[in-house]
Amino acid sequence: MRKIKTAPFLPREVEINEISETKAQVIAYPFESGYAITLAHPLRRLLLGSSIGYAPISLKIEGATHEFDSIRGMHEDIALFIINLKSIRFKIKDELERTVVSYSFKGPREVIAGDLNCDEVEVVNPDLPLATLNEDGILDFTLEIAKGIGYVPSEDLRDEVDSSAIVLDAFFTPVRKANYTIENILVEDNPDYEKIIFDIETDGQTSPVEAFANALETMHKQMSVFTNVMDIDLQKKAESVSSNNELKSFLIPIDSLGLGARSFNSLERSGIKYLGELVLMSENELSEIKNLGKKSLDEIHEVLAERGFGTEFTLDEDVRTALINKIAQLKE
After folding, report:
1. pLDDT > 70 in the chain, percent
2. If you ran DSSP here, which 8-state letter would residue 75 be given?
3. pTM for the whole structure
4. Which letter does DSSP use for residue 2 in this model?
5. Which residues contact residue 44 at a Cβ distance below 8 angstroms, ignoring those fewer than 6 apart?
């Protein structure tokens, strides 16, 4: 027999199966019927389109002026060299947005992706072939590598690189595969609840779990545009349950504060629902919230300050008492 509900069931179980450095499963359950696909589909799109990666965006080769040129002593022409180059997956070190690296090779030798490792960049697929040089072959080239998301065609990058360089199509996405399946799961004799199983594979620039966390954060930030709608709705509710106008600004739900996923999840698991609960807490009480790290704590302080509740803000005792009672009433 189905029961009358006033809110959908909240899933609580998450499992992470790290199959390898580049493959993982993320499993979450149980969802009400229909909720699994509502969340899974946009997350898959964000995994494929908004995951951060690195790619070469321009190339200068000594002795070559365009991509259909050739280099004396190199077996590959420039077009094939570029194809090989685009297959190499880089990581920029030191959290830089862009970097320029130069290389010089003299034949006879085989040049492979791993030969491009240096202080500025790391190659995550080092065994790929790049070029073959004979006895009189000399290969001098410079790469500009950038951090980005998605795919950017070369024509959109022409104004961002040196005019004398060969502009490259940039395929930043580090996620090779992002699929999901939805299975039914039994909850309290109801077989209609659902489980999401994500299968994620990356190219090694980032781990599957990091890519998934980035997709979650992107989704949360995109949805924060509706914060004003939530604020307006909350104010109307506050007016209907309280004649004390001073309490309105304290009764904003934490899910409309624009917090990052990690901060929000820590607060939600601790049972904190309203901004006023954070205002009522001392610094020690805030720092003792489970799984709330320094970065999340700094983010909460920033949100409080933006809304006028900085470190110098104090509550009148009457307002404090009224706020405590009102929050208790709303959470009953």
Report:
1. 94
2. S
3. 0.66
4. P
5. 178, 179, 180, 198
